[in-house]
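Session log. Operator J.P. requested a structure for one protein chain; no other inputs attached. Running the standard single-chain path with C-alpha cell output.
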Amino acid sequence: MKAQRTKPRKPETRIQKRNHEAILDAALEVFSARGFRGATVDQIAQEAGLSKPNLLYYFPSKEAMHTALLTGLLDTWLDPLRALDAGGEPIEEILTYVRRKLEMSRQMPRESRLFANEILQGGPRLHGVLADYLKPLVDDKAGIIRTWVEEGRIAPVQPYHLLFSVWSLTQHYADFDIQVRTLLADVEPDPFPEAERYLVSLFTRMLAPDAG
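Structure written below.
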C-alpha cells in the first residue's frame, strides 16, 4: 500500500494573516483583562471586529487561542533570563536582567497579566511549560548565580529567591499598572524611569560583595 502524501498547507493570504493577527491581539486584550475563565469567544470576536463564525474558522475554541498566545509568547518571555551570561560581570548581568524585565513590563503589560492570570488559576495550561522549559532554565541560571556567590563576586544570596524578587519587583508595574499610576499620578506620570533607578540601586546595594 502506497503511503498517502500529505498536501502542503497553503500559505495564508494577506487577509487571512491580518485576521489571524487581529484575533490574537483581541484575545490578548480580553484574556489579560478578564482571565481565561472570564473571557468568551463572543467578547474576543467583538474586540477583533469579526463575526463569531469567522473567528472560529481560524481558532476552534478559546482554549486554542489561549494556547497559541502562551506558546507564541514563551520565547519572548524567557529571552531576558536566557541572556544572563556566566562569563559576564555578575552585578551588571543581574542589573541588565532587571532592566530588561522592567522594560517588558512597560512594553508588554497585557502579556504579563496573561501569564499572571494563568498562574493565579493554578497554571492548568502552563504546567508542562513550567516543568519542561522554565525549571531547567531557572536551574541553570540559579547555578550561575550560586557560582558567583561561591567565588565572592556577589554577596551571599539564595539564587531562586533572587530571581523571584526580580520577577515580582519588575512585573508589579505591569500587573498592578492602574494602582501604580493612580498612586503616583501627582508625583510621576511615568513611573518607569524612577522605578529603574530605584531597582538598580536596590539590587546594586544588595549584591555588592561587602554587603554580605
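Operator note: Confidence is low (pLDDT under 50) at residues 1-8.
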